[in-house]
Amino acid sequence: MIKFTNVFKAFPKGGLALKDVSFHIAKGEFVFLTGHSGAGKSTVLKLIFAEEPVTSGEVRVSGFNAAELRRRDVPMLRRRLGIVFQDFRLLEDRTAEENVAFALEVTGARRSAIPARVMRVLTQVGLAAKAQAYPRELSGGEQQRVAIARALVNEPTVLLADEPTGNLDERATRGVFQLLRDINASGTAVVMATHDLDLVRQAPYRVIELQEGALVYDSVVDEPRDRAVSP
Amino acid sequence: MNLTVREALLAFRRAPLLSALSVTTIAFSLFVVGLFGLVAVNLQDALRSVAERVEIVAYVLPGTPIETITLAEKDIEAFPEVQAAAYVSEDSALARARAELVEFRDVLQELERNPLPASVEVKLKPGFRDADHVNEVADRLRGFGFVDDVRFGRDWVEKLDRLRQIAAAVGLVVGAAFAVVAIIIIGTTIRMAVLQRSREIAIMRLVGATDGFIRRPFLLQGAIKGLLGGLVAMGLAFGAYTLINRLLIHAAFFSREQALAIIAFGTLIGLAGSAASVGRHLRRV
């Protein structure tokens, strides 16, 4: 469903961000993307949701070929993805419910169906009671749950999460991680970039590790190894 | 309510200060354009009323039969440039001279013979009251056999022409400069509104909003700001006009069409400014 073939990515000023990266992620998989900051984790995610163009190689995401993607196709691709960031990216002047509904409204969903769909995902992330709260009235963990609800409301096939627990304390981290696992258990593929190795060790999921833009380890291809190698 | 309309109106509520600032900026920019427009309109009125006095007089040879002149009058009135041609007989010329030239009343009273010739007075249509057309019509009048001499204030008509050219050139250059300044100021204001919401735009793109979807509320909002700015500007201009009328000189205000044109201009700049700003922003992200 997500397929990278010999992908290179160069930034005009930053040199090579990805060097000859190839991997394939199947439907319903849970994949950790690990590595130091600057190793290229975020770049991989950005190529997936077409925020950045590929320099060379091929990126295929749920039927779309990134190289052939026209600007007006990008929204269509993103409607099949759910995207979550470390800094939540909620609209401060809208309630939790409105933030989630927003994602449906911009995609032209049927108006009458929106409230029910919003409440369903808010319930799923455990925030039904705080639907009317503004982001500033919510804790970090709760804000991330709203962001995840927003990512889920369009029923994506893949959820991309870039350091989703990076700004959270330990307890909130565990909660959000469990939520991502539940989402994966119900059939949605999850690609989670993280450098939190404790989390990686906790779960039996696939690990793809990047180092200075190169893929150095893929747990489905390479021999099992001590996951403590990278700090 | 339509989503575009809702989002456009929400923006006013969420950023009331910036919105008010935009509308005020647009209003004052258009107000300056409007004031200049008022000056131009009044100058044009003044020139037009002067131009109404442009007249060509064809003096008729003594003894020309009245039938000949009446016939010629019809021909002259058929000229495309001519608004009206009027025959002034010797007698009425004298009567008019007596009435108008009071200082010479005694002399005129004592005349044994009427020295004044009969004439045909020709008035031109508004678009033709300039030196070129006056000369042309005068030449044609000279072609009539019974015409002795043709007079018109050549110097005066040429000066009027010059004045009109200067007014038009100044109006065009200064008006265009004001309009450009207004467009730049309004464009900058609207750009601020777009930048203020760049985070929101980024999030909209992230969740799969199309460029058109993102653009529409901004366009509507820009048009509304331009419209409000135009209305306020027109109010300010009317206030200034009333004040000038009361304290300085009697002046004319815009016609309804001109007022609507300025408001439409504001709306259009608001719309175009938004389209440019959002377009540029979207191309960058």
Gyration radius from CA atoms of chain A, angstroms: 17 Å
Low-confidence blocks of residues of chain A: 227-231
The backbone outline of chain A, from C-alpha atoms, is globular
Instruction: Report how far apart the termini of chain A are.
Output: 30 Å
Report the end-to-end length of chain B measured between terminal Cα atoms: 29 Å
Strand order of the largest sheet of chain B: 2-3-1-4
Structural class designation of chain A: alpha/beta
Order of helices and strands of chain A: EEEHEEHEHHHEHEHEE
H and E order of chain B: HHEHEHHEHEHHHH
> What composes the largest sheet of chain B?
4 strands, antiparallel
Largest sheet composition of chain A: 6 strands, mixed
Number of helices of chain B: 10
> How large a portion of the residues of chain A is in β-strands, by DSSP E?
25-35%
Structural notes for this entry:
The complex is a heterodimer of chains A (231) and B (285). Chain A is an alpha/beta fold. Chain A contains 7 helices and 10 strands. In chain A, β9 (206-211) and β10 form a beta hairpin. The longest helix of chain A has 16 residues, at 170-185. The radius of gyration of chain A is 17 Å and the shape is globular. Chain B is of the alpha+beta class and 285 residues long. In chain B, 72% of the residues lie in helices and 8% in strands. Chain B has 10 helices and 4 strands; from the N terminus they run ααβαβααβαβαααα. Chain B has a 4-stranded antiparallel sheet. In chain B, α1 (3-14) packs across α2. The mean pLDDT of chain B is 84. At the A-B interface, α2 and α3 of A face α8 of B.
